[in-house]
């Protein structure tokens, strides 16, 4: 569980990518997926330095002539703040099937609410009779 409020986008993305890869574990191996599942909350409250809100652009192309679309970071944070963190983390993972498997273990939410709670054992404890 990672809280993104007040953290810089790039530094947050490197921490999350390291957790997804499993580099914090003693059994880390670059060609195996030994990373953890990561839940990022408060994605809308991530911060950036300098003039990145205006100058940083995200590009996509429709594969038709003249089909280049650009979106500023400010507009992306207003419309879909989860995509900003997903895009930053995806660029730091391997660009192959292993990276795709690691990326599937990332869940990003714009606010503090999420549906990934730890499993809690019932109060009775033990098996039903």
Q: Kindly state the percentage of residues in helix.
A: 25-40%
Q: What fraction of the residues are assigned to beta strands by DSSP?
A: 5-15%
CATH class descriptor name of one domain: Alpha Beta
Gap between N and C termini, in Å? 36 Å
- The CATH level-2 architecture of one domain is identified as Alpha-Beta Complex
User: What is the fold-level CATH name, i.e. the topology of one domain?
Assistant: Ribosomal Protein L13p, Chain: A
Strand order of the largest sheet: 1-2-5
Number of helices: 5
- Point out poorly predicted stretches: none
Question: Would you identify the CATH H-level superfamily of one domain?
Answer: Ribosomal protein L13
Overall body shape: globular
The topology string of helices and strands comes to EHEHEEHHHE
Tell me the major beta sheet: 3 strands, parallel
Topology, number of strands: 5
Average predicted confidence as pLDDT: 90
* Helix/strand/pairing category: alpha/beta
Description:
This protein has a domain at 2-48 and 81-108: Ribosomal protein L13 (Ribosomal Protein L13p, Chain: A), CATH 3.90.1180.10. The longest helix is centred in the first third of the chain and has 13 residues, at 9-21. The protein is built from 5 helices and 5 strands. Helix 1 (9-21) crosses helix 4 (81-90) and helix 3 (73-79) crosses helix 4. Strand 3 and strand 4 form a beta hairpin. It is an alpha/beta fold.
């Amino acid at each position: 569980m990672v809280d993104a409020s007040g953290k810089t986008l790039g530094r947050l993305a490197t921490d999350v990518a390291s957790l997804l890869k499993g580099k914090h574990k003693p059994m880390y191996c670059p060609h195996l997926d030994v990373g953890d599942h990561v839940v990022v909350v408060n994605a809308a409250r991530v911060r950036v330095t300098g003039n990145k809100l205006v100058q940083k652009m995200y590009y996509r192309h429709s594969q038709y002539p003249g089909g280049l679309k650009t979106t500023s970071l400010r507009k992306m944070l207003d419309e879909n703040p989860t995509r900003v963190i997903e895009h930053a983390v995806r660029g730091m993972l391997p660009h192959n099937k292993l990276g795709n498997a690691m990326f599937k273990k990332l869940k990003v939410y714009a606010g503090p609410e999420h549906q990934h709670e730890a499993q809690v054992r019932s109060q009775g404890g033990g098996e039903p009779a």
